[in-house]
Amino acid sequence: MRITTPLLLTLPLLPPSTLSLPTPPASFSNRPGIYANTFDSNSTRLPTLYAGLSDPNMYGAYFCTDTNWGGQCLWSQRLLDYCVTLGDPWLDSISSFGPDPGFTCALFETPACDGDDLELAYPGTPFLPGVGWNDRAQSFRCWRT
């Protein structure tokens, strides 16, 4: 997403309450919509994330570069039915993937959410190699189930 200069110039004119964002737990980074988290890589359970998703058009997905929720991990908050194209370090590198409760996601081998896909409902899987999808995802899309 790109924010244009005119939009940036109008931000100081908005009241402070308009610019406030929900506060994630201290274990997450402070970037809105994307929260990095460390997780015990010896566990096969998807971590419980408290993001305060109050918008019914949003969901979260948690994914990691290693199996069993290890390596670099990210919880990403996105719009429903929106194609998320992965970038570094996630492109062709995801080995664990799980959507939030009540959601299903499809991983795709292309950056445009088309072609071969793998659908995963909550809690997802800590072991994408077991279903033939290790390091294959280039994009994903999620929906409410």
Automatic annotation (TrEMBL):
Keyword Signal in record: yes
UniProt KW keywords: Signal
UniProt keyword Signal present: yes
Signal sequence residues: 1-20
Organism superkingdom: Eukaryota
Gene3D superfamilies per UniProt: Crystallins (2.60.20.10)
Protein name: Uncharacterized protein
Organism: Saccharata proteae CBS 121410
Lineage: Eukaryota, Fungi, Dikarya, Ascomycota, Pezizomycotina
